[in-house]
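tool_call predict_complex ligand=iron/sulfur cluster
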Amino acid sequence: MSFLINLAWSALGLAIMFAVLSLVVLSLVWLERKALGRLQLRFGPTRTGKFGLLQPVADAVKLILKEDIVPNDSEKAIFWVAPVIVVVSAFVIWVTIPGGENVVIKHLPLGLFYIVAFAVVGILGLVLAGWGSANKYGIMGGLRSAAQLISYEIPVVLVAAAVAILAQSLDLREIVAAQSSYPYMVVLPLGLVIFFIAGLAEVGRTPFDIYHAESEVVGGPFVEYSGAHWSVFFLAEYINTFAIAALTALLFLGGWGGPGLPDVVWFLFKTYAVILVVFWVRGTFPRLRIDQLMAFAWKVMVPLSFYTVIIAAVYRFYALPWWTLTILSLVGLGVAGWIIYRRMSAPARRVADIQRRLAARRETIASSSST
Amino acid sequence: MAEPAVPTAIPERADSQPVEMLLNMGPQHPSTHGVFRMVLWVDGEKIVDVEPHIGYLHRGSEKLCEGEQYHQIVTLFDRMDYIGNFNNELAYCMAVEKLMGLQVPERAEYIRVILCELNRIASHLLYVGTMGLDAGAMTPVMFSFRGRERVQALFEAVSGARLMHNYFRIGGLKEDVPDNFRQLVDELMPLLKEDVEQSDRILTFNEIFLSRLKDVSPITADEAIGLGLTGPMLRACGYEYDVRRAQPYSVYDRFDFEIPVGLDGDCWDRHWVRVQEMYQSLRIVEQAMEQLPEGPVASSLGRRLVRPPEGESYVRAENPRGEIGVYVVSDGTDRPYRLKVRPPSFCNLSALRRLLEDTWLADSVVVLGSLDIVLGEVDR
Amino acid sequence: MTIPILQIFDPATYAGNWLAVVIAIVIALAAIGGMFAGSQLLSARRRSAEKLTTYECGIPPTPFAWSNINIRFYIFAILFLIFDVEAVFLFPWAVVFMKEQAAGNPIPFYAMILFLAMLFFAVIYGWRKGVLDWQK
Amino acid sequence: MLESLKGMMLTLASTVTGLRRPVTQQYPTQATPVKPRFMGFPALTWDGGVSEPYCTGCMVCIRNCPTQCMSASMMDNPKHADGDSSRRKIVDYFEINLNRCILCGICVEYCNFDAIVMSHEHEMSTYARNGDRVNLPALLDIGKKYQVKTDWVPPTVLAKQKADAAKAAADDTADASE
Amino acid sequence: MPRPRRNAPEADADPPPDPIELLSVECRATLDRAVDLLGGFSPVAGTLGDLPQVTIPSTGIVDACATCRDHEDLDCRMLLCLACVDHQERFDLVYFLQSLALEKTLVIRTAVPYDNPVVSTVTGIWPAADWYEREAHDLFGVSFSGHPDLSPLLLYPEFEGYPGRKEYDFNDYREF
Amino acid sequence: MVPLLYFQLLGAALFGIGLYGVLARRSAVLIVLSIELMLNAVNINLISAASYLNGTGRFEAFDGQIIAIFVITVAAAEVGLAFAIILRMYRNRGTVNVDEINLLKW
Amino acid sequence: MQLALFVIVTILTLGGALGVVATRNVVHAALFLLLSLLGAAGVYLLLFAEFLALVQVLIYGGAVIIVVLFAVMLTRSSEYPRITDNRQWPLALITAAALSVILGAAFWLAPDLATEPQAPAFTGLAASLFTKWALPFEIASLVLLVALIGAIIIARVQSSTTADNSPVEPEG
Amino acid sequence: MPPQPTEIILGSGNRPGPSLLNQATDGKVPGVITTTTDQLFAMARKSSLWTLSFGLACCAIEMISTYMAHHDFDRFGVVTWPSPRQADVMIVAGTVVKKMAEPIRLLYEQMPEPKWVIAMGSCATNGGPYYRSYSVVMGVDHIIPVDVYVPGCPPRPEALLYGILKLQEKIMAEAGDRGATPQA
Ligand code: SF4
Ligand code: SF4
Ligand code: SF4
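tool_result ok
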């Protein structure tokens, strides 16, 4: 009996969770438009509700009311299944993502592994979406999304493993508890950077938005989706964004730990801070090209995350003082940053070259004309 | 692909094994800058071949010009290169003036130059913004449009319209600039400089932007000349050529400005050249404001019907996108017998096939952006 | 809302946990289903043959030749597969090697380092082979 | 790396300024500032002195309009017969299809009677293709609004005033120099 | 190079000066040199406004153009523009050539008959000519033999007639 | 309580279906998919045995599961290789149908 | 309760498997395989092997299916909409059925030694994996390495040959 | 190019097609309820007009200006999406050329209901300065039904914003009284 009550509780909790997540998505949509607006010297929505607060609601209602088109050429079954897969995998991981000490549906002992496992399934949804639309842009986008997401999944997994090594647990609550003295951001800044960047790529945000790049593949896998189907993808995308931000907060920023305020508030505060950074990055950067993206994943992120795992393990194994890890990871970060800087700024140095050569040429021209 | 610009038929390619995918971009595509269409053959993400299709904005302007009186044609020229309107008006007016042997009042020439250079800045700002969009950055376009908006406000104060000014007249200007013109320009200049700098800073040397544009579709100066590339496209290859300098028209010989050139002729160089040109244009405007003489601006023709003598004339001018040429054939009536424009974008775009050799699908967007085409003048 | 968890195996908690996962799936499905149903019910509709054509920038769609998708994608997929398998080993190891070490058994640590070295060798190999370059 | 970070600082800075003063014009709530010379849709002016339009229906503007979007007809001016007005002919019927007008201002330039102006009216969306086909009274209404708003003085009068002023000034200087 | 206004009626009195005389010195030199070099193509010297112009028969156009491009005195490596003018009984093709290095413009003009407007293509000499020729084909119906692909550029394939020609009427639009 | 036998029967049925797929299908891709089914049948058997026979001393729970992990590992490697071969086959011969492929001619 | 769950996962597993061998569409087959494999994950859960279930989801639900999809896309040709079975499919059916029956019978007849189902805690499994099974574990890493290198070589050689030489004429 | 329809479709009421619910309950639900829900829905629709990013000619520049910081279309909830599947409004900004007519019609068809069209500028309204051209369609309403015509060449951004306001009015009016189009 108690078991059934338990079950009922978790069902209720999950329903609430879904509602809360939907609200969060609405808030994120609003926040994103507002934040981008401010980044770009404008207001963002203002006319729907106070401060445009009802804008995402209006969008959502409208999307539901839109006609839902299933194109003729599409593979109907796949076209229908794809959004379902995406949303289910996006939502299921929230079973174990805690929003506070006791604000969680279930503490799964294998929490982190569970999240990793189900996050992978979502990739499938995007590939299938592109495939099912039988649209060239969709297929290109689907392929791109697969290539991108699988490549960046590996750094995410490895860094998560590094955190697990540090905390000696896969349970998110214990991981947060282990950060009570200092967040892992301090000891493993490299991990934070990798996780954040790979997380950006996982949710397809600028500069990694190549799979739904509007100026190239006009929305990628979603190009044929309209109305409710499309909004489901939209929902999943924002849930994923929130999940990545929440995981960043939990794994590196000390989760709900923080003085004074209730834990949920701290958690939301940190998560939204991460999300604002995501929007900020989005408002600043251009996007990469697919070969650069893949090269970045495999040549930079994967080796670096290997390095992260190994330094974390070594640090644990030999019980080194914590600042060694900080130093090690900063060294990794520095070396990687320097290498990237050298490679990427090569053109910039060539500009100086151009200018020098032009100046020289101008001088010769001037001297020849004067003589 | 070795021979330049040899289009093939769309449906099938000769290869027996279909290793390429046919991808259609445009006419409605966010990054084709209007209604341009290209059919790409891609192998994975690599572009194998491309066939550009234009004419989705072919409005028959050249033919229409034959049916309009000379003073009405200015409106059509406004609408050809609808980003460099003043530059276009200038080229047309010069062509007819040459035909008639008209002398333009000095003050009018200066005002024309000021407006044209401001228009060049506005045009390049639009370019920077759309280039940012093509490369996936959303904010530069906002910054650059802030500058554009400021320039347009000035244009509105001068000509009464933000875009379609219809302000230059054959032999002069429609009317003198407003009394507070000097003050307006003085207010505008520092702000505009800031806008230009900001859109420059946020994009030009950004590592991601660099890696997207550098070494993409490089072209040598010789090839560029053969393909008829002009303007920033040519200068990016390191060929220092600018009609304003080579055959100074209007009063351009009185200003001191540099011609920025690139080195490799790749997309980034084109971008860089345009950005530098904005700074040079700012310099020209400053000098022109200093030298701006007093005097009449209106055409000596007044409102008389323009009826050039029988004859032909061809003028060249440096538009933001490259060299424009206007060829007018007059038969002595009040309408031109034939009017032909050499639109810079048209020539630049015709080199697309060559430029997209050995590029990625994502590059096609950037290359197209770096061409900075305006479909209105490509298709006319 | 929470149930205290037990680090040791406890069938009741276990069942509760995983049933929650199942319920989560069901709820997600129900929510989507509700959305789709609501949309089907409420949305305006007017079908036409052309509406159902594939979007291709305003041009009637040309048939898609399925033949070629770059093989590079496949190689990355394989790489991913291998690394996923590696993750399967990495996670158990992450939580256990210290305990074993405490129990005086350093073997797991070195075993994993060896394992990682081999995988890293694979990456290096691919790198050297130009697999990671995505050139044509 | 460095430049990217600089870019991020730039957007951050713009956010900060954006929080203080976005450049946006809050359109419907905030009036749009148009420049004095702004060319909105053409409108006909009203001669308050004799309460009749300036327009004589001479069709010059119509012949010069590049889009042929106007039509007009002329009639004898009854007021002229009465001696109230100096205009022998007056417009009888005038229509502009503003949907077709391209705001070029040529009509204003070519009118000899100061009868047509480019008003500041530009928000004229309608639900019909020719919804902005406006006739004489409507044009005059727009024109009157414009005249009131800008204290309109007929350009010829203005030019004359200016010329007179210039002449006077020249005379002054001439006087002074004498 | 502004010329005196000549549309005043009193210009009738003295015969208009030969336009070639009015050319600037450099243009004059270019013209003479071009006529020299194109001697084999029976050139006729003339002017287009203030530009030197050489008229040659359409048969020699490719070789003449090649000469213009390759000879170092002309060095016209850029084709600025190719205009087609419909003179009712003939089409004039006007090639505007430019030497960027020497800063000279040279105009080559050739006439093709109205009933059989065929001329050989110059795409082999200047790739830039490709679209100009297609456009001329599109709008005027001038055919360029040897051109790789003369499919419609600006118009759609179903379009009938050659809208650039004088005989093609304007659309008449009646709203009033 | 579900008896062990049910799981074993499930495994057997799955194995049979997989076998049928391997034997009956022509497309190499589908054959590999069927092999995956068979491997899963084996895994089900292993794990059920591990779970039910843990206390009997004949079979340790860890072992069953660990063997299953290895099976999965090997299966993953196999899938990767198999499809690589199939791809190569397809590229060279233009088909993935096993009975159209004469390996000797390859 | 448990039985009901068992029935559900059985339906999922076997239904998916039947789908794999019955469908005419390769992508659908891949999706059915996903269904079947997720069903198998459910089975593992019922057997208290939660780690294995997650591994199943991670490896099969994520990676393998993606590899399969890529392979399907890469080998997709016009023949796919009408994939057919072997001509000996009745024979195959008989063989498979016979084997299942024999296996089933064997299980049926085998002595029932089962105790209560129970599973080890995760850490115990992990510890065992890295101590008792350390050697196979290293061998597994070798297997992975070899598989990776092999796959790369096979796929790459192919791509370079098509790049260098003219492609071999496809047959059929 | 199929022959163009010769007659001019005058500002047609382009209302959304009936939904299943409407079909099922036609006349069976008290008018008050349907009206209020309809109005709520209309409010949602009007506040979230997503446009098809699509510019044809010069007017497109002013349209882009409208999206930018100075005028900020986003305040009205107007954002662009590149694919017609996600768009509600098609702003035809520029000259519609005969070659482009077919793509425009196809794009319009591919937009899901309910959808609206704004003809921006005199070209899209009736050919504008190109009324004598051989290749220009004299107004986009020859091809697709248009809801709001924004005159001007190009219309100022404010004029376009005003057009959007008019469209919002129209949407509300349709919801309030099904079957009546608002007065021009
Ligand atoms: S502004 Fe131009 S288009 Fe409009 S009525 Fe006047 S002349 Fe005609
Ligand atoms: S507006 Fe002026 S030009 Fe036009 S009809 Fe009236 S008086 Fe004549
Ligand atoms: S209405 Fe005017 S501005 Fe707009 S597209 Fe037409 S010509 Fe260009």
